[in-house]
User: Fold these one by one.
Assistant:
Number 1:
Amino acid sequence: MSARPIGILDSGVGGLSVAREMLRRMPEESLIYIGDSARAPYGPRSNAEIRQFTWDMVNFLLSKNVKLIIFACNTATAVVLDEISAQLDIPVIGVIPAGVRGGLLATRTKKLAVIGTDATIKSGKYAALIHAVAPDAEVESLACPEFVSLIESGDLTSQIAQKLVADGLQALPAGSYDTLILGCTHYPLLHDVIQKVVGPDIALIDAGAQAVNDVEVTLKDLKIAALADTKNAQVQYFTTGAAEKFDAIASLFLGKSVMSTSVEIGQPLLIATQNPGKIAEFEHALGVRGYRIKTLLDFPNFPEIEETGATFAENALLKARALAQLTKNVVIADDSGLCVDVLDGAPGIYSHRFAGENPTADENNQKLLREMRAVSDLRARRAHFHATLVAVSCSKTPLIVSADWPGYIAFEPKGTGGFGYNPIFLVGETGKTAAELTLEEKNELSHRALALKKLLKELPNWLNKEVL
């Protein structure tokens, strides 16, 4: 059993159809709803934008410690659910599979129609899933993007709304379907208008409401449902748009007063480096989690910040705080280096300038090999790479994490990949230098990769903490 909340995300107010069904069937569950009305509708947007915006909402919900996320947006489900689900360690439920099951159960003739946003219809996900289960089914698909804008404006019942819906559905051939899947969670807010247009004999399938069945099963299977007699369940609504507008639509649809909070999500992160190798590692780790990245390559005129700290953490904080003040961005900075046991931890914080001011990587490597000449036993050449990462905002206490990558100093350089001391650092017991690893291997094993994994665990919550 778990009292943690369930997260619901949508491009705007459409996911309220899912929230309403959750409230009706599972009132003991706490809910956190995020609607991205400021950037709605998603349907006409590129897949890259849909991916980015969905990750913004996912990271917001993760900061609220949710136990499960419902993609109450068909567009997000079609474009990016599989990718995001693979990255998370909590269950993610999408609306498309549930809508397909509901439609196939309801149809008498195996003739179905699906309406949705441009992106959902173009993805072909509904038709593909229907045909995977019922190859002989006939499917008509129609994009109705104007419905979303209508609903987001709050116009649900006017004569204009009825005409727009009637005009929009004209393209569906009469008699070509007996079941209409509402393939956008906004559309149930127009349920009565749509039913009037298509007639009483057509079954309307609310894909979002159907998804609640999957939620119920998942909670039970994973034993994370709230106690049935829970009395203190809480429901919180967040919107990226105007709270007053969201509240008016939500209150009308849910039949009770709703007070939402307007929030800003998806702020970019400034990575305090110009090093292409480091940038590649940061982009790999942070990019797959949907964070937007800027680097110092985007700010070529920034002054160089002198690293005068006595520790890795002090140097990272010096860079991050200075850049946060200059840009007002959230800044992630690192300080890293190679620490050799027999040299009492040197080069350590002086790793980048071990051979003097502005040395090449080869000059640093050759100096270290010269200093290790007398150490002939590989076991005595033990060393580790260390990385400290900090996240800094002008308004928050810094987030600090660190990690080590153990190994040995080789007797000669090997490999052409990587940068810095990679050619002379033997990784653990592999017998390979870091410069001989593939980028994929390095992104799993390196000190920076390990520190980034720690950072990613804490970053969503830290980003959404109140200003200190």
Note: The chain has two domains: 1-266, 269-463.
Number 2:
Amino acid sequence: MFDRSLLLRVCALAAMAQLAACSSSSPSTTAKGAVAGDTTQTADSKGQDAASGTDTAAGDTAAGDTAAGDTTPAADIVIPAGNTLIKDGEYYMGVQAAPFGNLKLFFKVTLTAGGALDGGGVLKTFEIRAVSADGWIGDPLATAKDVAVGKDNTFKISFDSIVLPAKTTPTGSDVPVSLVLTGVIHKDNWFCGDVDGMVPDFGQALTGSKFRGVAWGTEKTPAESSCEGDNNPIYTHIATCPSIAVGTNKMNSATRDRTFEVRLPDGPTPTEALPLVLLYHGVGGDAPTMITDAHYDALMKTEKLILVAPNSERDPKTGKAVLKTDWYYGASLFDMDNPDLVYFDDLVNCVSKTYQIDPKRIYVTGMSGGGLESTFIGANRAAVVAAASPFSGGFLVKWPKYDHKVPFLVTWGGTEDSAYSQNFDTLAKQLIGYLLGSGNVTVQCNHGMKHTWPAEMTAASWKFMSSFTLDSKDNPFATSLPAVFPSYCSISK
């Protein structure tokens, strides 16, 4: 008969510093081999507003999915009585998804534990809920149980097949994910480590991602999401511009080797100052294809402008995009800490040294991921951008405050406009709400042709952008739209 006063024994670290998790029906039972931690997961994925308590529909979560600690067999250890390992309670956990430009996700963790720091222990329960940027908290996604913590304070938990509710994702769509947290508990009750797992809709592993959890209510703004904290590098602008010519060009900007395309209007090399348009491609795309798909070759036969189409950061060995999102529009990086904003600055500066550019007529546009990128740049370089025209775009982070209200033409393809299972109809309408709330001139074109750039919209987009300069005071679209705009366009109100 077991003595209930004896210390609980669980599995400990085996060779290679791997963790084991086990469960015991009696506090003094010795585990001879590890068993997976049980997982409780809700089939109902409604969330609750932290302030009002109102139920809000979110993504479906399948019951029975597992979340567990590592199951490697381990030697016996004795857990000290009581709990000085980490305080029971609620924690704010930030996750930065490296393949998505360190895009941040947030969770509420509720845990209970037993053991001692530097003495081994167990996370008896580790429940996670998704949290939105504005504080909405979802229902439990999963709960890991009886996760072993080694004498070096390390642990490992896997959450398989959970669905992040639309209200907590940057794109406003449900996102299935699996998460593997390999972490360490620190004194003063915080924990951090590495994240692996998968985002199936994007076919993307989360290798290289990070997480950090601190006591609920003590998190910084924005919340930190790595062991090192969020001490992001601050880049400097390019010191010496490269030679630039029509065609493919190279530049090292923000410590990254980049390429971009330059196109000039038909006819002799212009000597007068011309508008500059920066055109951004989507996820998995490239600059030359984007120029064709956006019909700019045809536009430039009649319109006088200089076109620059950047490529996203590429792996020098494979030529593929370094980020699954191609661009850094999802990161909470809004100035010289964002490589894409520095790249934009360097492109404008260096192209202006080669060609006569009118600094009051600089515009940004793009499609899909490029629509998200041109929105991000338009919002965060408002002192430079005279107008923006994103196609199937949106804004994934907190809308900034700025003095110059950049005019926006928002174009998308209706309720069936989606890519990678993300709903661009939702993103477009959300963006229009941000713009109207900030007092920006806004025109919208819902073409209803799904995720595409209609040929007739190129002339309309150019007409909209070129109608504004950086110091424009009047709104030429206050009461009506010119005939070049298709019938599906309207003034946003």
Note: Confidence is low (pLDDT under 50) at residues 1-66, 70-75.
Number 3:
Amino acid sequence: MDYDIFISCKSEDYKYAEEIYYFLVENGLNTFLAPMELRLLGESEYRKAITSALESTYHLLLFASNPEYINSSWVYYEWDLFINAKLSGFKTGQLVTVWKDVPVKDIPMVLCKYESFNMEDYKQRLLPYVETPAHQERVREAKEIANAREQVFAIAEELKGKIGGILSNDIPKLNEALGKAKITRRVCPVCGCEIAISDKFCRECSWILSPFDGITELADIMFDASDLLKTAQSVYKTNKFHNEKALNDSRCKIGKLEQRCRCLEEEIDSKDVELNQLQLFLNKREEEIRSLQRRIEELEMVHAIEVGKLSQELVVARGQINSTSPELQEKPSETIEETGTEIIPTDRSVQNDDLFDRITKKMQKKF
């Protein structure tokens, strides 16, 4: 396939290049962009396909959003091959550049002499530089087809009026005769589809039918309009081709949108899984917190019980101290305890103080 223009860019710039691609296609230019046709090819087949497309293209458009992308391996290979082909006389088309956020000082000197555009305003100025003889011929043919179609309908309207005037009185007789002959169907002379005798126009191609059109049994008396029919058939086939092409383009765009939707659905499913895992983690932590709260409540209960017991012991100890006679508190009496051969004096008040100290230490140790 011959291309009007080849878009060269790094894979990171495909999202911008696709916008340029659709702009050129909508304006009737056969445009080549690698991800549209070569995504599934291996490296050896990819190089062969790229080289073949470069050989068949008329113009080359170089796009970059980063100065480093200009000299990347594949991009450099494409624009360098095209420039060498121009210098050798094999190419007569233009090399144009479209930049996005690329400073002029970072553009290679060899590219500075070619026409340059910005991503923001290329639509206003680009088309005149990428016109090709093939594209101009297609535009001319499209205009001729449109004019021929208008002429066909004008002639058809004229014939309809003439035939209607001539046969207005004879049409009932003709229909009666066709009914007796059991002729109920006829064939459209433009698209060839079968239609009813009573239909005044073809439901497939909208051709306006005369009373004799498509009735093979009455071929000898049909109006001779072979040139008109040939023109109408040509218009029909051309429109059918363009409609099928538009339908295929629409299907391609729908396929890409469906693929994008599937990718988004997969991302959403992945986020849902992460969210569920996070929810499980939070539930587990909440259960641990509730368990810790129950443990704290249990410890507080044990603490309260221990405090009550120690308070009771303290009260008992104070009662024992207070029960000691005042005389012994003022003048502590000494008792003699015999331990082996050694005699040790014992003071009852000292014993009471020891008891109080032990209880206090026990409380301090508990808390």
Note: Residues 201 and 208 are 4 Å apart (CA to CA).
Number 4:
Amino acid sequence: MLAFFLPILSVAGETTDNQTIRRQTDPLQSSSTVPNLTVIECSLGLSVYALAMTRFYFALSALVCFFTGSALATEKNAPIQHFQGTIGKDLKVSLTLWTNQTEEGEQLRGSYHYQKSGIPISLDIGKDPKNEDQLIFIESTGWSMDGDQQVTGRWTVVWKSSTITGTWKTPDGKKSLPVNLELSQPEGSVSLDQIHLTYEVKETDQVAPRGYQRELTLLTAPENEALSRKLLELACESYKDDENRVPANFNELKQAMRASTHEEIDAEATYVDTYSEHFSVRMNESGFLTLENSNYGYSGGAHGHYGSQFAVLDTATMTVLKLTDIVSPEKIASWKSLAISALKKSRAVPQDAPLSETGVTVEDYTPTPEDSWFLVPGGIGFYYEPYAIGSYAAGEYEFILPWKEIVRDLKPGTAVHKLAQKMTGGS
């Protein structure tokens, strides 16, 4: 029945009681970031029929519901930026900033690490409500079982083009240190940009919206064509065709995303079929690039599913490393006590408490080569999505084993082993 309805056209930005028109752009139609496809949100009203220069109204006296359909396609680009400098007089740090796309719009995110330790610390970033020229960075190491954020510091800074300056304070505000950072690529890093794509087709009646929404934030290396191809390959995994082939180039990827939102919409559905992937960087230095793909999907039911996958890339060889490339399965299993201790610390659970106090439900937990892992300057991290080792309500688990605890177990002669030796002073 919906195919019977003819679209209503109007000049962009004009609004009447029966229609709201919104112009958007389709990056599929252009190889540049300059869009050229008008996508129109249209509505059908009752008992009105009129014709004007650029406006059409159609009335259907038998229509018993109010329907709104929309299609949207956008492409946004943003660089990932690295800063280096000091907190205090001589505490050398590296900071990474990137942009997340949320329902509320673009959100600045970040992490930093002390160069001596190499363990990343997450940053929640927002504007200072008392001074719009300043930013507030809240640093934390995770969440307790009671849902309390484990805040370790607060930054109040001013970001001016290539510099970030301000003050770092302890959570209680009793200690403060100056922050002085400059835009700078770490040694052995690569320049990266983010490209954010959105495709959606939605219908809305008096019950609920329905349709499809697909989002993807992928990474590209403007100065490294081979790396850009590898990053595109990783981003295309979720958009294989019926013959299990991944898109061969950027335009084919956009075509696949667009096609996934143009399937027939179930008229009985009461939800929008949603899937999003956002690639970001956990490590970009010393010849290694650790990518995190944070994803979310919802196709009906009590709740959506979310989680992350990681890829550790050796930028010299363009190969994705496996954990067993750098450490044997037997050594990984021997990290059991270290991993349990780190799990407890990540949830602010006392070390003498049973592991079950963290929400872990698997019996005899032991890390394995098949577990999701990632590389950071200061060690090897493990990640578990909801349901992997605990309930959905327990959420994600993540911890990092520092080099000083595991360097002796690494396979000698590998690039990772050399990095670990460098970070531990050659031990």
Note: DSSP finds six helices and 23 strands in the chain.
